[in-house]
Amino acid sequence: MLDYARRNNLAQIVMGRSTRARLRWWGRQSFSRRLSAQAPDIDLIAVAREEDRARRETSVEVEPREHGKRAARLFGYLYAALTCTAITLFATPLRHYFDLANIVMLFLLGVVFIAYRFGRGPSALAAVLSVASFDFFFVSPRFTFAVSDVQYLVTFAVMLIVGLVTGHLTAGLRYQARVAGYREERARNLSEMAKSLSSALVETQVVEISDKFVESSFRAKAAILLPDLSDRLEMPPAHGAMPAYDLAVAQWCYDKNEPAGAGTDTLPANPQLYLPLKAPMRVRGVLVVEPSNARPLMIMIPEQRRLLDTFAALVAIALERIHFVSVAQDTLIKMESERLRNTLLAALSHDLRTPLTALVGLAETLSLELAAAQSDHADKARVIREQALRTSKLVSNLLEMARLQSGEVKLRKDWQSIEEIVGSALQALDPALTERPLKLDVPANLPLVRCDALLIERVLVNLLENATKYTPPGTTIGVTATRADEVLRVEVWDEGPGLSPGRERVIFEKFARGQKESIIPGTGLGLAICEAIIAAHEGKIWAEHRTPHGARFIFTLPLDEQPVVEPEARP
Amino acid sequence: MNPGEGRIETHSAVLIVEDEKEIRRFVRHALEAEGFRVCEADTLQRGLIEAGTRKPDLVILDLGLPDGDGADFIREVRAWSTMPIVVLSARVEEHDKVEALDAGADDYLSKPFGVAELLARVRASLRRSVRAGEEQGPLVRFGDVVVDLANRQVSKGDQGVHLTQIEFRLLAVLLSHPGKVLTHRQLLRDVWGPAYVERSHYLRIYMGHLRQKLEDDPARPKQLITETGIGYRFVPA
């Protein structure tokens, strides 16, 4: 028993103490004393009969199979008595032909038979009865327990001891064989279940398999409770062999990731056992097991509990596998739709851009030729070209917005100098800016910033373009870049009429225009694109009124730790 | 432009590899108006055959051809020829252009492009290829800057300008490819070495230094031009 306790890493042994049989009680007492002497590290708790049932029942661990078989056992004792009687009757006529020693053998054979058939108790009775009948019926003087020859006392003693020991060994052997049989059956069940779980593809299959397994291995009813998206356990659809479970207890078990109910530290009075389905990543649900009334203790035997735990782990892994299969499928669908969107955008962009490129090119060729021929139509051709260019720009804006809106803009972040980006933005706008006084305040010693240069250039181009569009010709426009703590602050300002009060936020919305239905060309996408780009860079963009007059648009970009630059070796 | 150069260009043959008929037509029209001989191909396969048999002086290649990767085409042509290649691509597809330039393309045009732009790029590329064989003079002038490549002397106006070794090397690489866009990768490899091709921040810092020392208005450079997302270009003026 101590070996068992050590093997199972038990810290406490709870022992039942029956006041019913004094002799046994005394035996247990001394047994518990012996235990405590041999294993001072293990707590022994002796529980008297009067205490609550559940606690007491946990103490019956050692030979559970004999429990609830009182009738069968009585039958065994009866058989022991009958066997002894039969042997006596059978041997009586033979005593003239055989030595008494051989008669003893017959009795021992009976004891072995009883031990094999009915176990330890009946075999002990058989041993005692055999000695008694041998003495009474065979040893002279017969029909009395008195013994004339003292040497028979040795025979009795040996007979008794051999009977008891053989009985004990045989019974033990039989018990072991039976246990081995059970184990084998359970192992087979477990492997069968693991096999069927591994081929399960949906959760309901897992639930079915586990119900079947718990039913066949533990003769118990089982239910698996699965959480919904908000981590609340859901009631499974009711079916016939459903244990009556308490959803609150199950939820507790799920949240705390600890078993509850019968045989555990939490709510042991509960007839059901709640086991969390622990998978490597997280708890996947709760297994509720309700033992059938005939065998309430089945699930409380450590070996059975271990089996149940193994089973719970298998179910949890199966559930997790199913979960990840569905996650993978979702990802696949998402990737597929993403790919589809990108293909669509690319195709659209190609299909729109190609004719526009041809249109712009041909219109330009036409206008050049017409101009060379001094035709009046040269101007018309030039207008066609300009309109085609505008359409192309609009298409680019729409496509870019769609790309940014899809939320999956791939930023090509790199170390950039804002001075350089401002420079290339100004270069891109060159013809539009020529007649504007421009004030640049972009110090060369500003830190480098990690950003997508093309997109930030786009922001600057849009802001500068707005400044030229919405201010009268000749108005001063400026770009100022400064470092403010952990951000780079870039400001595009003008000395124009400024923003209408209260419109500082609205203008960033899609299709919002500075002046409704104005003659100024544009789509109202420019600032929305700026905002999307800056948001993707984890920066901020806003508009302000500029004193004394004019507007300013400010955006910030986070500054990271500057990259290492090895100093140049002096020649 | 001197008359000799003009003659070289106008007799040049140009191959257009482009699947869109209308774009081909407009490019052909624009080039023929300037006296170029033009041939066309509508697929990459066809283009490779045309390039091999006709040996044009310049190739205009659309990167969006359906039957293959433009960069592969360039690498294949580069295996046997140094003929200039100008690529056409949409504005947003910067990485395609970089890949094409790294593979050996000479220049690029973003769609939609104008006739003037197209002709300027074609002429500049042809000029560079004609000059490639010639010795570059030790003196390079742009703006009011004079660079003496032989003696490593740089002056702006009548003031001497001190450049560090790396600054000078960077300038020399840019000057040796006038008008050509050089990708970040190419510049980093040529100036700092192959181990530095991913460290573009070096380039930002040293280009900043060069502009501070050589440009009249460093924030609005006229000669050391940024090609955003691609690289840098030295524009002689």
Written account of the structure:
The complex is a heterodimer of chains A (571) and B (237). Chain A has 571 residues and is of the alpha+beta class. Chain A contains 15 helices and 13 strands. Chain A has a five-stranded mixed beta sheet with strand order 8-10-11-13-12. In chain A, strands 3-6-5-4 form a four-stranded antiparallel beta sheet, with helices on both faces. In chain A, strand 12 and strand 13 form a beta hairpin. With 237 residues, chain B is of the alpha/beta class. In chain B, 43% of the residues lie in helices and 22% in strands. Chain B has helices spanning 3-10, 21-33, 44-54, 70-78, 94-103, 115-131, 165-175, 184-191, 200-214; strands at residues 13-17, 37-41, 58-62, 85-90, 107-111, 139-142, 145-148, 153-156, 159-161, 181-183, 224-227, 231-234. A five-stranded parallel beta sheet of chain B has the order 2-1-3-4-5, sandwiched between helices. Chain B has a four-stranded antiparallel beta sheet with strand order 6-7-8-9, with no helix packed on it. In chain B, helix 4 packs parallel to helix 5 (94-103). The longest helix of chain B is centred in the middle third of the chain and has 17 residues, at 115-131. The radius of gyration of chain B is 18 Å and the shape is globular. At the A-B interface, helix 10, helix 11, strand 7, helix 12 and helix 14 of A face helix 2, helix 6, helix 9 and strand 11 of B.
Main sheet record of chain A: 5 strands, mixed
Radius of gyration of chain B, Cα only, in angstroms?
Answer: 18 Å
Strand runs of chain B, count: 12
Radius of gyration of chain A: 46 Å
So what's the oligomer here?
Answer: heterodimer
Beta-strand content bin of chain B = 15-25%
Indicate the low-confidence ranges of chain A by residue numbers: 19-28, 50-66
User: End-to-end span of chain A in angstroms?
Assistant: 85 Å
Low-confidence stretches of chain B: 1-7
Order of helices and strands of chain B: HEHEHEHEHEHEEEEHEHHEE
Helix content of chain A: 40-55%
Strands ordered across the widest β-sheet of chain B: 2-1-3-4-5
Please summarize the sheet with the most strands of chain B. Answer: 5 strands, parallel
